[in-house]
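$ run holo --ligand "zinc ion" --emit tokens
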Amino acid sequence: MDLVSDQGLRIDGRRPKELRKIRCKLGVFAQPEGSAYLEQGNTKVLAAVYGPHQVRNRSKALHDAAVVNCQYSMATFSTFERKRRPRGDIKSTEMTLHLKQAMQASIKTELYPYSQIDIYLEVLQADGGNYCACVNAATLALVDAGIPLKEYVIGCTASLGNGDVPLIDVSHLEETMGGSNLTVAVLPLSGQIAVLEMSQKFHVDHLSLVLNEALDGCRRIYEILNDTVKNHLSEIGAISGWGKSDL
Amino acid sequence: MLTSKTFLRKTKRGNVLKIVREHYLRDDIGCGSKVCKKCAILVEEQEAVLDDQLPDALSKAYKNPHYLIVDTNVVLHQIDVLEADVLCNVIILQTVLEEVKHRSSTIYKRLKDIINDKRRKFYVFVNEHHKDTYLEREAGETANDRNDRAIRVAVKWYDLHLSASQAHVSAKKRIRIVLLTDDAANCEKATKEGLFAASVEDYVCCLKDSKGLEDKISRSESHFDEGSKEIFPCHLTPVQIHDGVKSGKLLQGSFQASRENFLEGQVSVESFEKPILVQGYDGLNRAVDGDVVAVELLPEDQWSAPSEIVLQNDEVEDEEEIVEKVLKVETKQEKTPTGKIVGIIRRKWRQYCGILQHNALQNTTRHIFVPAERKIPKIRIETRQAPTLMEKRIIVAIDSWSRYSRYPSGHFVRALGKIGDKETENEVLLLEHDVPHSRFSEKVLSFLPKLPWIITDEDVAKRTDLRHLDVCSVDPPGCTDIDDALHCFQKPNGNYEVGVHIADVSHFIRPGTALDDEAALRATTVYLVDKRIDMVPDLLSSNLCSLKGGEERFAFSCVWELTPNAQIVGTRFHKSIIRSRAALTYEEAQLIIDDDKQQTSVAKSLRGLNKLAKVLKKRRIENGALVLASPEIRFYIDSETHDPIEVQAKQIRETNSMVEEFMLLANISVAEKIFAEFPEHAILRRHPIPPPSNFEPLVKAANYLGFEMNTNSNKELAESLDAAVKEGNAYFNTMLRILATRCMLQAVYFSSGVVTKEDFYHYGLAVPIYTHFTSPIRRYADILVHRLLAACIGADVTYPDLLDKKKMNNICHNLNYRNRMAQYAGRASVALHTHIFFREKVQNEEGYVLFVRKNALQILIPKYGLEGTLYLYPPKGMKQEVSFVYNEENHTQSYKNIVFHMFDPVTVQLTLDRSNIQHEKLVFKLVKPFIPNFSVSSIDEESKENVTRVEENVSEECGDKAGTSRNPVVLQQMKRKDEDFRSKDSSRKKKHKK
Ligand SMILES: [Zn+2]
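-- output --
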């Protein structure tokens, strides 16, 4: 089945280069140092950041950098079929590792030797691009926690429809119906790629096409997240009187 | 820009799941009309296809200029009306498009073709994603009602939207929308809402100039059947069928009508080894050949056996009587599972070629259409053009089949041409076999190289220059698409270097171009007796790719070093440039080999090849390769009338087999190479081992004459066939081989990623791996193989689709389908020419009994490769003094002391019976052995009463599986296509000879 109609629309009505609607909010929890909620279409993710704090397992402490610990999980109700999802199954372990790799690339870990930063991610609803939504939510939660970052790390997926039309921000339906998917986590300002993964092989002719599309998506997501952060800051700032203690 | 909306969907996948999908509604979808200024700026890529200047008052009913919107059922049932050029400026809603896509893929494809035709001005409006036209399904509303409402909402939106842009135009001149729907309730609702709506019939009848469009309307059932009595039982409802199939009470399968008996057929059900027999009006219950049906198995005591009676609905007979006759058929034969069809799951109706039946009534518009394909029932149509259509071959589509009507009702689609015209008959043949044969489009031709074509230095640098080699080609006379050439010389070390050079078609046909798509669609060149339907345009097939003598050409070369014992020492592949020294015919090559005085390098080369080929062939046969040869026929065609003037068996020379051996060797070498490099993506060809039960007829037939057939393996079968030689019947062995060929399965292309390695085996050739590399001019599979091989040796790069095994496997399916159809078309063409040859002729011929049937003998005429059923019982209503006795055990027919066994020689007289214009048939009369009052003397015309009817089967074989083919000519073609045995038969090349 074609992922893009002759009229140039995808199954859900988007054009090939359109992102799903992104909605996000910082500071959704009181307890953690930082938290964020992010929706990318119907994929909905919560992120919470604790730390930096002392390393729990001393043997793992690093003398020159903070340890970044990620924890990925999916809610039992997150997919169409309810399933118990034990922590630590292969899929979530892999996710955890990839998340850690992306977050480490972004956080200035060298500022916190002998410390640990915990990032908890929970997928509330899964509709494709779970990893990307997690990366993006984690970035926002880190910002909320006030942890210094080199720059945002942003995740985005891309795929090919009808053989050669690059599609961005792939939904679950497109993931299952289409061919290979490309997932990247990128530092968009410097253009560095932190993580790149493909569900299947791409033909070499197509790889650059799809990758460029995904990178472009990252830049656009970056704009959206950055606006959210700015709005959030101006709200917080206005309430707190921009740090004037006499209020 | 985006508004997002979620909706719920329930699906049953074991559990009921709540599925939430996003559905984006947009404000950037244009209306597609040139009248509208607003949408023009919205999206630049969207062209406005709908005209702003419409011809005034097309219709008597609707004075406004208007666009049409059609509902789903109009598309599904009136596609022939839509295909007619009369209707332009039509809006297809996405709601309709998607429903059509789900309901019928063939109609969806036809609709898409119309939409893509720029002249027709069809515009697809994506109403489901437009913010103003999207609708939620309301509580209690069915999906159909919701869609009807969505269509009405879209019509209303258009009316409003367009009137906003036409504020300056008076209301009477404004462009409006007319909704075409055959659903009366919907039509009424639309009218109430102030919209223009009409049924297709009403609309077309009001057109000022309909150009015969009325004939193409598919009319509702009731139209024909006022007050008739019911003939068929009711069909079950889809829900009942679904439940019945689920509970196992009903079985789902595809229906195949019998071509010999129009009241009999069978349903192939997956879970059943044997097909289920269905008989009579009740049993068949309006199923048409190919339909997917629900069948109910009858209790075992009501089981029946296939009637061995040939029953054709040729003449208008008393049908009640026929029914009775069919049902009371008593046979001692084994009863088979019998059932009755209770419902239709999916119709596989298509368009059918045929003629109008002569109608005694003058001035009636109702006529009976007789399809050429005997498996298809007659069809009732309405047409005002009957007088002009009577002498023509026409195309008709089925619309419906009511319980009250013996025949389905349909409508006229188009006329092909005069009956009996060779052009018309060829057209029929190509259509019936789904052979794409339109001229190559401008777009396709635009990808051809520009002339003059020259070889540049760049080309030389990239290729191995083999112009110094003494290459030559060997083909049948008159061959213009030469795709292979050979060379051979003895090296100083005593070994031979042998090269096979194949036309480098993939150099000219680049992946993804329109030229490539067209070739992939056509899949193969189709050879009719007097016509070739090329897979690639003539410039390539007969010129730039053809390895003509003396011309420099690009080739893909496979070069071996062989020991004198034909063992391969080394293999090289390279893209090359060659210059063929001579394009020889088999005969010329043979003469050169045989003439010792000739000592040119070409002559030496040919002798070397010939010597090695003999070794190769011997080894191949020792390995168990089958020789399923049969005589080949060739038509000599009058150069002016293009009618065949002589038919002759073709001679097979040593050189045929010489070329064949090296082509096989090249194919095997290439198969090994591409499979090693692309284990998941190689395009290969396999010939499955036939199941033992397939051999039963062969084993039985041989047993009657005291020969043992060992069918455990191809080697043993080959040995048994070799041993089965009967003194005094030289043709006996050939007949056995003909029977053996019918036991075979069809060889197929496949992608190596989807089949396990054990199944790669090629049974006929007895090789573990095989492919097609040697005929890229006329086979698309070879082009793919060339591309793979080029990628292996770094001469070219792969492209995405080539490494997508799913896509490649789909392409293989198409190749297999087209190959089969090409074979059938070739056979049908031979049959057609055989008929033309026998017009105005009476001839005595030697023949053999191939089968003994209950009421007939199956006769084979080797000279013409013809086979026919010789009825021993008189035609219905006739008396015959001679009555034969059928012995079921020994399979003999006898009259007094004359006994007919299988394989017995007979002499028959051939004439053409042209009384049925659509099915001209060859009539054979028995000459020898002479039976008084039955046989004819060799010259006398006998009175009609005593004529023994023999029907020549060829034309009906077309739809049949090759495994049960009855025409030996076919064998030759199958051999060529499947096995690359290399004997390009007569039908392939035009031969003009006075
Ligand atoms: Zn508009």
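-- notes --
The first helix of chain B runs from residue 38 to 42.
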